[in-house]
Design brief:
Helices cover about 30% and strands about 15% of the residues. The protein has helices at about 10-25, 40-55, 80-85, 110-120, 160-165, 185-190, 205-210; strands at about 1-5, 30-35, 60-65, 65-70, 100, 130, 155, 180, 190-195, 230-235. It has a seven-stranded parallel sheet with strand order 1-10-9-6-2-3-5, with helices on one face. A three-stranded antiparallel sheet has the order 4-8-7. α1 (about 10-25) crosses α2. It is globular, with a radius of gyration of 17 Å.
C-alpha cells in the first residue's frame, strides 16, 4: 500500500486525476470503477478540465459505480445516478450506455446483485477502482460487521453513515436506510485501487486501515491484501498513519 501525502484537497484531487487520465490515455477502452460522495468531486472536476482543455477522450471508457441508495429513482436529486450525471458524465464524452450503476428501484434484489457481479466479471474487473473511506472505515457501503461481504448486496446502513450523509438531504430522516453496494470481491478484482481521503475526520480510519489488523470491523483494512493500492490523502487525513 503506497501512501501519497498531498498538501490539501485540491492537490489530492489533481494527483488522483492524473493517474486516471494516464490510464485512459494508455488504454482508451479502460474500465473505471467510480465512487460518489464529496471526496471524489474534485477529481471529477479535474478530469473534466483535462477533457475540455487536453481532449482527454472517454468515448471508449466503461464505468461501473460502487453503489446506489435503495428506494431512490435515478431522477431523485440525491440518487447516485443523478450525482454521476451532474458531477461527471454530463461534462465528458462518455457513452451513457457504457455507464453502470446499481438499480435502486429493483423488485428483485438478489437477481440485480448477482447480475452486477456478473457484469464486473464479464468486464475482467476494473482497471482502476476509485474509493473513498468512511469515518467508520467503510468502503463503498460495506459497513463494519462480523465478516467481509464478498458479493454485491443490500446493506443496512450504519447509523454513523446515515448521520454523515445527512448533510446531502434536507433532514437525517430523509436519508435512505439501505443501499445496494458492490461487494469486496469485485472491488479487490481491480488492477489498481485509488483511495482518497481528506480531513482530520478520516485520520483514525486511515491509521487503522494501514497499521491495524485485517478486520471486518474496519472494512477498508482488507485493502492490505491487495497488491496495488495507492492512497492519496492530505496531511490531516494522514496525521495518525
Amino acid at each position: 500500500m503506497q501512501l501519497i501525502s498531498c498538501t490539501d484537497y485540491a492537490d489530492m484531487s489533481r494527483k488522483a486525476a492524473r493517474v486516471i487520465a494516464a490510464q485512459v490515455r494508455l488504454k482508451p477502452q479502460s474500465v473505471l470503477g467510480l465512487a460518489t460522495g464529496s471526496t471524489p468531486v474534485g477529481t471529477y472536476k479535474e478530469l473534466i478540465r483535462l477533457h475540455r482543455e487536453q481532449e482527454l477522450d472517454f468515448s471508449r471508457v466503461t464505468s461501473v459505480n460502487l453503489d446506489e441508495y435503495y428506494g431512490l429513482s435515478p431522477e431523485h436529486g440525491q440518487s447516485y445516478h443523478h450525482f454521476m450525471r451532474v458531477n461527471f458524465f454530463n461534462h465528458i464524452n462518455i457513452s451513457l450506455g457504457n455507464t453502470h450503476i446499481p438499480d435502486g428501484l429493483t423488485k428483485d434484489v438478489a437477481k440485480t446483485c448477482a447480475e452486477y457481479d456478473q457484469l464486473v466479471t464479464s468486464l475482467g474487473g476494473m482497471d482502476i477502482q476509485l474509493l473513498g473511506i468512511g469515518n467508520n472505515g467503510h468502503i463503498a457501503f460495506n459497513e463494519p460487521g462480523a465478516f467481509f461481504y464478498a458479493q454485491t448486496h443490500l446493506v443496512d446502513l450504519d447509523e454513523k453513515t446515515i448521520k454523515a450523509n445527512a448533510r446531502f438531504f434536507e433532514s437525517e430522516a430523509e436519508v435512505p436506510r439501505q443501499a445496494i453496494t458492490m461487494g469486496l470481491r469485485s472491488i479487490l478484482s481491480a488492477k489498481l485501487i485509488l483511495l482518497l481521503a481528506s480531513g482530520a475526520s478520516k485520520a483514525a480510519a486511515i491509521a487503522k486501515m494501514v497499521k491495524g489488523p485485517v478486520d471486518p470491523q474496519l472494512p477498508a483494512s482488507i485493502l492490505q491484501l491487495h497488491p496495488n493500492v495507492m492512497v492519496f490523502a492530505d496531511q490531516e487525513a494522514l496525521a495518525l498513519a
